[in-house]
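Discussion board: Methods & Data

I've been asked by a reviewer to show the raw model output for two of the constructs in my manuscript, not just the figures. I'm not sure how much to include, so I'm pasting the format here to get opinions. Each protein appears as its amino acid sequence followed by a line of discrete structure tokens. Is this the kind of thing reviewers expect to see in a supplement, or should I convert it first? Here is construct A:
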Amino acid sequence: MDTAAATGLTFRDATDADVDALVALIESAYRGDSSRTGWTTEADILEGQRTDPEGVLAVIKAPGSRLLTVERDGAVVACCQLEHRGDHAYFGMFAVSPALQGGGLGKVIIAEAERHAHETWGVAEMHMTVISAREDLIAWYERRGYRRTGKMTPFPYGDERFGIPQRDDLQFELLVKPLAQPAQ
């Protein structure tokens, strides 16, 4: 999606009033049959919830955190979490409406998130964790400049706030992207 095609998008911080819409968006992008409309579904590896109102509200309220909300024509169409963690920012809770996936919207949003983190917090890197079994999603991030680190953290089996695993080999891999521009 080029800049002209991205017109009509509004980026803003989420508020308490956005919680229900954001939970619905995140759930629709990752869980259940509605998620199968897009390509980011986790429905084959996880059932149950992806998040809940308390989790979204915690991101909105946390110090050094913002939940970037993206609207088009007054409707919430995407979101992502940015968290300032010292020398880097953490990128998470990324969701694009399944009906809009595949059209380049995600590229625009992640670029804006990276720009914001670098300009606002002066961080040199963006970090994220992705379920290592999500090879298609990891490949998408690699095309955006993220690199696999091989650093794994366990999936929180037994904590249904994160979903109900449908397989026993889930873990998160840390992906990292440098944000600082090299000197010319």
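Construct B, same format:
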Amino acid sequence: MGTISVDLFITLDGVYQAPGGPDEDREGGFEYGGWQGAYFDDESGEVIGAGIDRMDALLLGRKTYDIFAGFWPNRGDDDPIAVTFNALPKFVVSRSMTDPAWQGTTALSDVAEVAALKDRFNDIHVVGSGDLARSLLEADLVDRLNLYLYPLTFGSGKRLFTDGRGVPAAFRLAEPPRAFPKGAIALFYERAGAPVTGIDISEG
């Protein structure tokens, strides 16, 4: 049985919107796109790259898919991430897309179809795709959260959990956290059943 990992670049106040460029996603009037670059260093790049090298399938929401499909196929063979993404089997969850243009892509009409991918692949990664990640968490289909936490806040922007959405779930560290020279931290969590609650810490 394979695993589904969510790889998400996120700020201290939980914003994941448009880390890669100023015009990546301006939905909602978001003006802070391109915030990840100032904190990128060789060490964090190596860890992110190692995660990409391990995946054997890429799962995306429609918005992130459109961004990726307009970018990675146009990169040259000297870009190792482009080579990997272009070669991987790709899946996009979309009710309206029927004929994806990015070679190697299959469209899934509903989140319920994602579970079957675990029987076909060992290491499936969701990159970005916050709406899809939230839906997968609500369906209890996420096995691992790979969070790259950046030391800044915006006060606005798309967040992983908003308006009370989400389900009770516990996670445990899958490997030690990694701190990088420019201040970002990588946190790797795996699913660990239900939260333990009802403990009065003063009685411990």
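Answer (T.O., handling editor elsewhere):
This is acceptable in a supplement if you add a one-line summary per construct. For B, something like: The chain has four helices and nine strands.
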